[in-house]
Design goal:
Elements lengths: L1 H10 L4 H9 L5 H12 L5 H18 L7 H8 L4 H14 L11 H8 L4 H14 L2 H6 L1 H7 L5 H17 L4 H10 L6 H17 L8 H10 L3 H17 L2 H15 L5 H14 L4 H15 L4 H14 L4 H5 L2 H7 L5 H13 L6 H13 L3 H20 L5 H11 L8 H14 L4 H12 L11 H13 L7 H8 L9 H24 L9 E4 L6 E4 L2 H16 L7 H26 L6 H14 L28 H4 L1 H4 L16 H11 L8 H13 L16 H8 L48 H14 L1 H25 L2 H29 L10
Antiparallel strand pairs: 1-2
Length: about 850
């Protein structure tokens, strides 16, 4: 009865073709129904039905990602069939689904051994392919002897696949080198091109992991390089020599001649020609003849219309650019022309080459060329250009920058380039230059002012970090500003509501710095100056003295107070707190500003508060090392890995709110309560602003209407994204940039300014490579095998040398007395033996692998 059911199931079973036709009909539930059928069919005892079900499951797993791990045991059952068609389906399913954690992995060992010893070369081939895919440590150890036997098989198909599986066996079981390596090396002398291609491919992969271990095989590889006519084999051999020559420079001179011969051939393939050029650029660049020939041949790639070949030519130049920049300069026109290519990969590689040519003499010219390309490029490539300029110019603490005024202005112009999205990088460099280069602060403040007064930049979220840096620089170095009033007005313009709250807080703090600086200049002046906001500069051009009249300082204070009144009730606590702090400071000193005009008394409460704030802001900020936090020593007894669940109980007293206490200072002594009473007496927050403030607001709106949002817009800024979308089209255009904007200015001969550098930590600390050295055991095994190969020859040479020395000693014995001859003979033998032992020990320690003299 069971056999009849199995027969019926096999007769009406859907084949793989039926499954594919059903999938093409597009039924949504077809896959789930097919899986149910497969689960039912694969449990049957008939191997034909089981194999077809497994074949369909493999198809669904490959194309639709269906999990087939549950069918691992059924795949082992299908592999045990005597029919080749079933074995092929089973091995394919095993290679597709098995992993190191598969529970039934141990069941496949005996079946693999049986098929590896089969007389059918196709079954052996299936077993080798499966071993190459799923080979584990245990499988590689248990099947090493079978692989060794197949490496000497008389059937080319079997031997070729056995050579390929050696790579997996060596990786999983390094001790297999002792068994199989000698026979693998013997296949290097095979005349069959397929076998030679397979064994060279294996050695190419092994050499990439540890080239030093394979130096003794250099003569065999050299013979293949000279005699072979197969481009694929030659490419692999060139890759091997590129690795070997980098650690053994003496090979370069020997290998350069055959490489040049391949490059001089008329009908040489492009792939082989490119590999020869890359080998010369990477490992044979010290050979002048080969290098010049490779540079001449690379032009064929650069002028070719095929973008793939053009990219390869640019990529090859990037390899040699670091050591031989003249090779890139000779092809400068082709590199610049490639910047206009349609292929983005070609343009990107040309950009990397241009940045490799940058130095302090041509940085201005190359930056001008690249910025002109950025103006007319797509957003992606535009930002690649800007990012490359930023990286090249900031390398090694701006080593190639001589004129920092030019570079700061270039950073400001980058913000106006369409599609610029490098705000974070530009922000970092603006602040970094301000802290490192004192001579650039005057230009930095000028550029920051130009950015702050441009309202079109407020609508671009990618430029908000740049505006943050500009606001910080304008407040930190306000003493270099020509008009502090204009800076404060730009910092508090109504359109700043488009900025994130974190940046608005920086704007408020910078406005506070401007206010403190202006009040300090006003209160410290002995006599009032006639022109408002006048500026006088010393002969050096860096020290700026600002003079303020009563009217000018009153206008500044009123403008800041008016701009911060609306911010004192905002939702963001940081913005609200900073605004109220500034308003409180203004409320404390506002009534004494008028008294300063009539009284010369400097010991007032406001003057002491202003002097204190000046001292707070007077400390100059410097660059901070990126590794500063790591240099802080850990306190004794600090356990970072301990469980901190009891922290609240331990630190109960510390975490409890501290009792209010009154703080007093020698410089500042004012009461918050008095300030509140004074504010309540002057005006209530619910009352409209005074007439003077209203008139100032109306006058400001009339003069600077550009800064104000449209009165028809909703003033509810809680949903900023909606406002951004509504007002983005009404922003005035940013300052237009022409192609001539980036032309270098007339050079002025002046020394390079001082750049503050840290002893260490300027560059970000690189994490150590986490990859473990898994190939050390394999390298040691291969070195041992190669050392053993030449051990017999070395012993034979030592025996010949000893016999010759003994003959010389015998002649000396006949010419002298027996006593003298005996002493001399014993002394020479002992000294020679000791010297040989010492030389042997030194050689084993310093030179574990030597290159044969035959090649060198």
């Amino acid at each position: 009865m069971a056999s009849s059911n199995s027969l019926m199931d096999s007769l009406f079973q859907r084949s793989l073709e039926d499954l594919i036709k059903g999938l093409r009909l597009g039924e949504s539930t077809f896959i789930s129904r097919s899986l149910e059928e497969i689960r039912r069919e694969i449990k049957l005892t008939d191997l034909s039905t089981k194999s077809v079900a497994l074949q369909k499951l493999s198809y669904l797993a490959a194309l639709h990602g269906v999990d087939m791990a549950w069918a691992a045991f059924h795949a082992v059952e299908v592999v045990s069939s005597s029919r080749f068609a079933h074995k092929r389906i089973g091995y394919h399913a095993i290679a597709q689904s098995f992993s190191d954690q598969t529970p039934v992995m141990l069941l496949i060992t005996n079946q693999l051994r049986k098929d590896l010893n089969s007389s059918n070369e196709h079954e052996v081939s299936l077993a080798l392919e499966c071993l190459a895919r799923i080979g584990t440590d245990d499988l590689a150890r248990d099947l090493t002897s079978e692989v060794f036997t197949l490496l000497g098989s008389s059937k080319a198909l079997v031997r070729k696949k056995a050579i390929g599986v050696v790579l997996r066996v060596f990786d999983k079981y390094p001790d297999a080198v002792k068994v199989c390596f000698k026979r693998l090396v013997e296949n290097l002398e095979s005349s069959d091109p397929q076998l030679l291609s397979a064994v060279v491919g294996v050695f190419c992969e092994l050499t990439a992991k540890d080239p030093r271990s394979y130096l003794p095989l250099a003569p065999e590889f050299y013979k293949i390089l000279v005699d072979s006519r197969n481009n694929w084999v030659l490419i692999k051999v060139l890759k091997i020599f590129a690795k070997l020559a980098s650690i053994e420079p003496r090979l370069a001179k020997k290998v350069a001649d055959p490489v040049c011969e391949h490059m001089r051939k008329q009908n040489v393939g492009k792939s082989l020609l490119f590999e020869c050029i890359r080998t010369v650029f990477s490992s044979l660049s010290d050979q002048e003849t080969a290098l010049k020939l490779a540079v001449a041949k690379i032009r064929e790639f650069l002028v070719d219309d095929d973008p793939n070949l053009k990219y390869l030519g640019l990529h090859a130049l990037s390899i040699v650019a670091g050591k031989h920049l003249w090779a890139v300069l000779e092809n400068k026109e082709a590199v610049v022309k490639a910047m206009s290519d349609e292929d983005p990969n070609v343009k990107l590689e040309a950009l990397h080459l241009l940045m490799a040519m940058v130095n302090e003499d041509n940085v201005t010219e190359i930056s001008r060329i690249l910025m002109n390309y950025a103006l007319k490029s797509d957003p992606l490539f535009c930002n690649e250009i800007i990012g490359s300029i930023l990286v090249a110019c900031s390398r090694d603490s701006y080593e190639i920058i001589v004129d920092f005024d030019w570079y700061v202005s270039l950073l400001g112009e980058m913000a106006r380039v369409p599609h610029c999205q490098r705000g974070k990088e530009i922000e970092h460099q603006l602040i970094d230059i301000g802290t490192r280069v004192k001579d650039a602060r005057l230009e930095l403040v000028r550029v920051s002012r130009a950015l702050l007064i441009d309202p079109a930049l407020l609508g671009n979220q990618f430029l908000h970090p740049i505006l943050s840096a500009a606001a910080w620089a304008s407040g930190e170095y306000v003493e270099f500003s020509k008009s502090p009033y204009e800076i404060a007005e730009a910092l508090l313009q109504p359109r700043t509501c488009l900025l994130p709250d974190s940046i608005r807080a920086i704007y408020i703090h910078s406005a506070f710095k401007v206010l403190v600086f202006s009040l300090g200049a006003y209160f410290s002046a002995q006599e009032p100056t006639s022109p408002p906001l006048a500026q006088e500069s010393t002969s050096s051009g860096h020290s700026v003295v600002n003079g303020f009249t009563y009217n000018s300082i009153s206008s500044l204070v009123n403008m800041i107070e008016l701009g911060l009144c609306s911010l004192s009730g905002t939702i963001d606590v940081e913005v609200q707190e900073r605004a109220k702090n500034v308003l409180g400071f203004i409320g404390m000193i506002k009534h004494e500003i008028a008294e300063k005009a009539t009284s010369q008394n400097s010991e007032t409460e406001a003057h002491r508060a202003i002097a204190f704030m000046e001292d707070v802001f007077s400390e100059e900020l410097g660059p901070v090392s990126s590794t500063a936090q790591e240099k802080v020593p850990l306190p004794e007894g600090l356990e970072l890995n301990e469980n901190l669940e009891g922290l609240q109980e331990i630190c109960r007293e510390v975490l409890e709110p501290m009792a209010e206490s009154d703080y007093s200072s020698d410089k500042v002594s004012f009461s918050v309560a008095k300030l509140r009473i004074r504010d309540q007496e002057e005006a209530s927050s619910s009352l409209p602003p005074p007439l003077e403030s209203s008139s100032l607001l109306a006058e400001h709106r009339k003069r600077h209407g550009l800064y104000y949002l449209s009165s028809q817009k909703s003033e509810d800024h809680n949903d900023r994204e909606g406002n951004d979308n509504n007002t983005s089209n009404e922003y005035p255009p940013a300052n237009e940039i022409s192609v001539d904007s980036f032309k270098p200015k007339k050079k002025i001969s002046k020394p390079r300014p001082v750049v503050v550098k840290l002893d260490e930590g300027d560059e970000p600390k690189r994490k150590p490579d986490a990859s473990s050295s898994n190939d050390e055991s394999l390298s040691r095994a291969i070195q041992t095998a190669l050392m053993g190969k030449g051990k017999g020859k070395e012993k034979e040479k030592e025996r010949v040398k000893e016999n010759h020395e003994m003959n010389v000693d015998t002649e000396n014995i006949e010419q002298s007395s027996r006593r003298e001859k005996k002493n001399k003979k014993n002394g020479e033998r002992s000294s020679k033996r000791s010297s040989r032992r010492q030389r042997g020990k030194e050689a084993s320690v310093t030179k574990p692998v030597e290159v044969p003299d035959l090649l060198l």
